[in-house]
Amino acid sequence: MLVVQKDVRIELRTGEVVTTSGFFAVLLVVMASFSLYGGPMSQRLVVAAVVWLSVAFAAVLALGRAWQREREESALVGLVVSPLSPSALFCGKALALFCFLVVIELLVIPLASLLFAVDLLVMGPGLVLIALAATPGVAATGTLFGAMTVRTRARDLMLAVVLFPLLSPTLLSAVAATRELLGGASAAELGDYFRLMGVFDLVFITGGLALFGMLLED
How far apart are CA 65 and CA 17, in angstroms? Predict the structure, then answer.
């Protein structure tokens, strides 16, 4: 929680992560609404992809800026030599990223619902469940591989190259679940997608707890 509080206080003071990644995600949704919206028939196909692509790209931007803070003035060294365990550092960084992504989703989902004529009162609870199932895995994976690439020279490029293929299972599951939900399926009928996202979350949260310390070692 100390790490979470640190990241959240810095973000409240500067607004760098949420402002940059949130603006990018909103811009992507707006551009997609003008270029891809083809009426009610294509609504559920387009909005599902737009929402989760926006979140995925925003997550990379948020990660890049969040880890850049740790590189400045040897802040990462201070975290590593602090009396906090590596698993606590991982949980703190992942929870902070989770909070940032939730804020971005609170911007993206209502905006996409407005621009693509989705009834948020009807679809909102299901979309919240999908977001809660997918976001922890995105945050855990991003934190783990953000730490892996933090010392590399082309870190932003490496992070995107490594992260997107690994996020494919949960992103595809989230897109498919959102598409089916907007097509009229109930949340109970999306059990397979929720289970797949749950397995992904469990694997990368467990992997992060186990491997984070090794990735931070010189």
Answer: 6
Cα–Cα dist 182/202, whole Å: 27
Task: Name the pTM for this structure.
Answer: 0.84
Rg, the chain, Cα only: 18
Classified as helix, coil or strand, 152 is coil
Distance between CA 208 and CA 218 in Å, rounded? Answer: 17
Q: Which tens digits make up the pLDDT trace of 153-168? A: 655 666 667 778 888 8
Q: How far is CA 30 from CA 55, 71, 136, 144, 207, in A?
A: 14, 33, 26, 31, 36
Q: Show the tokens assigned to 60.
A: 């990379």
65 CB-near residues (< 8 Å, 6+ apart): 16, 17, 20, 21
**30-52 tens-digit pLDDT:** 888 877 766 655 666 788 888 88
**Distance in angstroms (rounded) separating the CA atoms of residues 15 and 19:** 6
